[in-house]
């Protein structure tokens, strides 16, 4: 009886974690990075959706994450729309019909304020956040 209970609990944990892959934009990007490192193509492809041509291959993203020091060395921050430059907010409003959020990925410890960071536009589709686009840029070129 105890074994059955443990199996059911483990299944529930797996089901819950699978459903929450894209529950918030920053968690979705973090899950994408982790999936790339684990070579988990199912999770990677789910979050990337039909935009693999914009994002790149799973191997390319894994290499990028390794170059940045790994997931544990990164900050995943959802940027409030009011903190984006007005023209960027307007462009994204025109481009996306679904709700969207911007996630900035940057090193946790950085002495260089002018270094490039990665910006992900995550589109909310059927309750999950999926990749709309990705770009590397300077904070000053995107944020107020």
UniProtKB/TrEMBL annotation:
Signal sequence, start to end: 1-22
Swiss-Prot/TrEMBL keywords: Signal
Keyword Signal applies: yes
Protein name as annotated: DUF4878 domain-containing protein
Organism of provenance: Rossellomorea marisflavi
Domain of life of the organism encoding this protein: Bacteria
Signal in keyword set: yes
């Amino acid at each position: 009886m105890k074994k059955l209970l443990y199996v059911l609990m483990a299944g529930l944990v797996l089901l819950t974690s699978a459903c929450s892959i894209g529950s918030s934009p920053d968690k979705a990007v973090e899950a994408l990075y982790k999936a790339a490192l684990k070579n988990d193509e199912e999770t990677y492809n789910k979050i990337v959706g039909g935009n693999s041509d914009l994002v790149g291959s799973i191997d390319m993203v894994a290499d990028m994450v390794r170059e940045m020091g790994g997931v544990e060395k990164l900050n995943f921050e959802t940027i409030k729309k009011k903190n984006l430059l007005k023209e960027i907010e307007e462009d994204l409003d025109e481009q996306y019909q679904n709700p969207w959020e911007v996630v900035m990925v940057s090193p946790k410890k950085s002495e260089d304020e002018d270094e490039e960071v990665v910006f992900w536009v995550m589109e909310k589709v059927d309750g999950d956040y999926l990749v709309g686009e990705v770009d590397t840029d300077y904070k000053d070129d995107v944020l107020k």
